[in-house]
Amino acid sequence: MKQLLTLTTLLFLSTLQTPIFAQQDIFIEDSIERLENSRAYVLLVAEMMPEENYDFKATKESLSFSENLMHIGYALDWHSQSLLAGRESRDYTTDTVYKPANKTKEEMMETIDTTFDETIKLLHEFKPAQLDDELDYFGLNRSKRQIFMLLADHITHHRAQMLVYMRLNGLVPPRYVLFQ
């Protein structure tokens, strides 16, 4: 009788885990879809800005259009590869991969596209059980699920600056795209 109770309890508990993991899998799938849409929108914005305006800054303290674009790549790489996957962080002050200096518009766009590829590949391989793992994020205790959300948030923040820069240069930004 004791074995039957134990077996019944285990079976019951195992049915609870499946919906939880299914929801987490959906969260990861939704995050991937959002990044794929965001990539398309970021690249469209980057394509529409003429290369001669890539150095444009709204104020002298602001990042330029190209610096915003490359900062999206750097932060995407850091949040995904370092925070989610545990790779050692690039040093922003010495890193040249994500600095716009001596890069053409096309090279910057290729770098961003590749970074999105690498991030999306990582998320496809990410285990749902890791979403609740916690880490230090600038002195705050954050879960990896929150890092997923920060990925999208950060891209939106800098892309919005790029859209304003387009307007300040007399360009009409591309229409807003949902789910990105």
Provide structural commentary.
With 180 residues, this protein is mostly helical. It has one domain: Four Helix Bundle (Hemerythrin (Met), subunit A) (Up-down Bundle). Helix content is 63%, strand content 4%. A two-stranded antiparallel ribbon has the order 1-2. A hairpin with a 2-residue loop joins strand 1 (134-137) and strand 2 (140-143). Helix 1 packs antiparallel against helix 3 (105-125), helix 1 packs parallel to helix 4 (144-168) and helix 2 runs parallel beside helix 3 (105-125). The protein is elongated.
Characterize the largest beta sheet: strand count, sense, and whether it forms a barrel: 2 strands, antiparallel
What name does CATH use for the topology?
Four Helix Bundle (Hemerythrin (Met), subunit A)
Tell me the overall shape.
elongated
Question: Which percent range describes the beta-strand content?
Answer: under 5%
Biggest sheet strand order reads 1-2
Count of beta strands: 2
Helix residue percentage: 55-70%
Structural class: mainly alpha
Q: Mean of the pLDDT scores?
A: 89
CATH superfamily: dinb family like domain
Question: Which class in CATH terms?
Answer: Mainly Alpha
